Amino acid sequence: MEVVICDSHASQARLAADAVERLVRDRATQDRDVVLGLATGSSPLAVYDELARRHTEEGLSLAHARAFLLDEYVGLPADHPERYRAVIDRELVRRVDLDPAAVHGPDGAAEDLTAACADYEAAIAAAGGVDLQLLGIGTDGHVAFNEPGSSLGSRTRLKTLTSQTRQDNARFFGGRPEAVPPHVLTQGLGTILEARHLVLLAQGTAKGEAVRELVEGAVSARWPATVLQHHPHLTVLLDEDAAGRLELADHYREAWATKPAWQGL
Ligand code: GLP
Description:
Elements: E1 2-6, H1 9-30, E2 34-38, H2 45-58, E3 65-69, E4 71-73, H3 84-91, E5 103-104, H4 113-126, E6 132-135, E7 157-160, H5 163-169, E8 183-186, H6 189-193, E9 197-202, H7 208-216, E10 234-239, H8 249-257
Parallel strand pairs: 1-10, 2-3, 2-6, 3-5, 6-9, 9-10
Antiparallel strand pairs: 4-8, 7-8
Helix pairs in contact: 1-2
Bound molecules: 2-amino-2-deoxy-6-O-phosphono-alpha-D-glucopyranose (GLP).
């Protein structure tokens, strides 16, 4: 795992965008599509802003990218603005040249949710798996919507949100936790672990405890994000506040400061 403590949100977003851009450019030379894993929530928004800026100002093209979302609420009407598919369209897809038909998410409106989950797993596999997965982290240590108690090897399935998560997400639903759907479809932890590079972003003191567990805690279903410690290529991009409870923060700073520039993330 590589932990980078960033001095600004702009530099955090630039590092994540650099990883995406490097991958896109590498794949272009090989004439192969890129498969991106996209996260919703506030954490990756500045990355999407930066990708949109590079598209407009520097010609970065996502025309040969495909994308898979991590999760989706169950039961929101098709035109609801907080469906994650609608959010990602707004925050990224419409601002770049990503083909909307190449962007997929779990179908939270399906009649047969179990079949929708199996179909989603099959679609990711058929695309050859995810090359780079952007992630946030919940204050309770969830990744995607894998809440505490999630099986560490889980696959895409139906989950129930904790009251903490409904509280945290109430800001997207008029400040009303009860308006946040209680059920979701989410990629499992086992699914996420199969992505080839994981880039997790966290900002703010509210994430400090979850980040400490993620980076320095024992692997446990109590803090689902800790399973990411098993991943061979995990990059954790933090602001100073999110990093505030890390015991070995000085070591991470030194390792980053002395890293050869050519290595990238
Ligand atoms: C959300 C999402 C996650 C996200 C997390 C943190 O509810 N399902 O994918 O990473 O919770 O959200 P935020 O980035 O808004 O803090």
